[in-house]
Structure to design on (222 residues):
């Protein structure tokens, strides 16, 4: 069974731009969660989607948004990028209430 | 205040030594998971424990869930450089699907 895939793996953007990251979950998983991880830090929860609905949201500004499609694929968008948004963005898929399986992440650098 | 407190935050030891890292809470969890993350990659699930007092072994790694389901430990015997990484615990609280994360223990095994 294929794992979680994330695209792109690496991205360089300029302050003020926007970015869209994509995540394809493990087949059969309908729950997708997004996390931000800055160097040396743990995981900061962004949001979780289940059946195209946002079920939980972390403490991030409205510049961070996401959505989920009917095939469970998910995207997250960051608008008006700031230098502090440079991070590894991780996507994880799961069955509801079960352990999460992570993709390799997207490394975003904002210059 | 984190719901799951991991200790120590950082540990650097010589190859061949034994070590234990902890994941503690004042709340009850229906399950706890341990993940290992290498730099620039997504966390990889090591184990899930669900029953109070449960002990699981994965080669040289021993995981224990506390009797009251409020804490967990990870013991590594004869640590090897390949054990180096960020160890994260995460859990589901009863009646809550959101996965709660600890801040992680950064482990370095020196050859």
């Amino acid at each position: 069974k294929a794992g979680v895939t994330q695209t792109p793996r690496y991205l360089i953007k300029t302050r003020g731009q926007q970015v869209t990251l994509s995540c394809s979950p493990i087949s059969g998983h309908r729950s997708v969660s997004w996390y931000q991880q800055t160097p040396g830090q743990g995981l900061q929860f962004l949001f979780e989607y289940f059946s195209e609905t946002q079920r939980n949201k972390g403490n991030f500004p409205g510049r961070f948004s996401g959505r989920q499609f009917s095939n469970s694929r998910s995207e997250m968008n960051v608008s008006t990028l700031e230098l502090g948004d440079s991070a590894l963005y991780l996507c994880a898929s799961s069955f509801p209430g079960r352990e999460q399986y992570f993709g390799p992440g997207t490394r975003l650098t904002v210059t | 205040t984190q719901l799951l407190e991991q200790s120590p935050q950082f540990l650097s030891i010589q190859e061949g030594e034994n070590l234990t890292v902890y994941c503690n809470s004042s709340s009850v969890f229906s399950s706890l998971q341990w993940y290992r993350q290498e730099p620039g990659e997504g966390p990889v699930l090591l184990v899930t424990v669900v029953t109070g007092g449960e002990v699981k072994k994965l080669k040289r790694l021993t995981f224990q869930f506390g009797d009251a389901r409020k804490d967990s430990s990870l013991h590594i015997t004869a640590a090897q450089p390949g054990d180096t990484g960020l160890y994260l615990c995460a859990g589901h609280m009863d009646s809550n699907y959101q996965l709660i994360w600890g801040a992680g223990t950064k482990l370095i095994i020196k050859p």
